[in-house]
Amino acid sequence: MKQLTSQTERPVPGGELGELLRSHDWSRTPLGPYEAWPRSLKAFVAMILEMPAPAIIFWGHELIQVYNDGYAVIMGPRHPRYLGATYRECWPDTYPVISPWMRKLLATGEVTQVAKTFFMLTRYGFNEEAYFTFDFSPLRDDAGTIAGILQVVFEVTDVVLSERRLATIRALAPRVNGPSESATTDAIRALADNPKDIPFALIYHWDEGEQRLELAESTGLAGLAQHAVVDLGRITEATTQAVAANVPVLLESVPSLLGARQFGPWPEPTEKALVLPLRRTSTDSLRGVVVLGISPRLRFDDTYRQFFEDRRASWPPTGRGAGEARRARGLHTRRASPGPGRSGGGPEGPGGGRAPVQRGTPADGPGRRSAGRRGIAV
């Protein structure tokens, strides 16, 4: 393997990218063979390879890419294919937005900084919601002319997610101590304001007299057709498990369970949800269950899960049981078992963010019910 160095130049540092740089056939790229590179470019490349932060160099008017190990993570499946490729080839989706900044910098040397910018990455094998703060700085060649751009990147995804989730926690806080009759409605509105973390939510209240969970509120289910088939058998199994063990239960294959594919703001279907049992701290009796959709564009890591589970302790009081409230209004309550139901609708929040609450239509096979069924027998 050829060592990219000379008696007067520093060798290319180690790491994965160092190895790739040493073995890459640069003569087949617009940069030409490594020996012909300007000494300034060689020095800049050696510099970023030793930087802990993700960094990339765009060189020349064609904006040829050379990057370090940290930036290779951001490249995801584009790495190593686009090492030595043009920015336009590698990032066709963002090129129309980013390239004007780059051209201006090459012409004027004006540094550009961008904070908390959304990028869709595929570094973990799925379309991921990620945020970065970065700046573009000019790089000069051996003659002192601006010939390239240095981009140093700092990922701030955790910061953005923390701020967003904290806003949801704060929005829920004043509702916890509010009147019980409106607390659930206010809570679902707070959840609806964060569809990126909570694509959909279902709030069930426990009806002690009927021994069943009654759907009180929902959001994010606008894509659920009125006659969609719901697999109550699997939903009831997960809910019963959560209630019996008093532990959160992960619900998978959500689209097939609810008979719809589209929940929340992303084009990808929401595949998973977390079922959270709610209990009264004073008596340890069941208050209800909350089902929270999990974003298809985020890893369901410990921080994400904790954000959901912490809501159990701070959930609004339910007041009187759902069945009691419905009976007080003269409405008949049915168990979630085979048989005809009724269709109906519920309130929808501003901008269509909250889905209508629907009652059932006839069953479609054993253990499967229409989308509108409001109750679950546990």
Q: Describe it for me?
A:
- With 378 residues, the protein is α+β, with helices and mostly antiparallel strands.
- It has two domains: 15-155, PAS domain (Beta-Lactamase, 2-Layer Sandwich), CATH 3.30.450.20; 180-377, 2-Layer Sandwich (Beta-Lactamase).
- The protein is built from eleven helices and 13 strands.
- The strands form three sheets. Strands 9-10-11-6-7-13 form a six-stranded antiparallel beta sheet. A five-stranded antiparallel beta sheet has the order 2-1-5-4-3, with helices on both faces. A two-stranded antiparallel ribbon has the order 8-12.
- The relative contact order is 0.11.
Features:
single chain; Beta-Lactamase; 6-stranded antiparallel sheet; 5-stranded antiparallel sheet; 13 strands; 30% helix; 22% strand
Topology:
Layout: H1 15-23, H2 39-49, E1 55-59, E2 64-67, H3 69-75, H4 87-90, H5 95-108, E3 112-121, E4 128-140, E5 146-155, H6 157-176, H7 180-192, E6 201-207, E7 212-219, E8 229-230, H8 232-245, E9 249-251, H9 254-258, E10 272-279, E11 286-294, H10 302-309, H11 322-328, E12 369-370, E13 375-377
Antiparallel strand pairs: 1-2, 1-5, 3-4, 4-5, 6-7, 6-11, 7-13, 8-12, 9-10, 10-11
Helix pairs in contact: 6-7
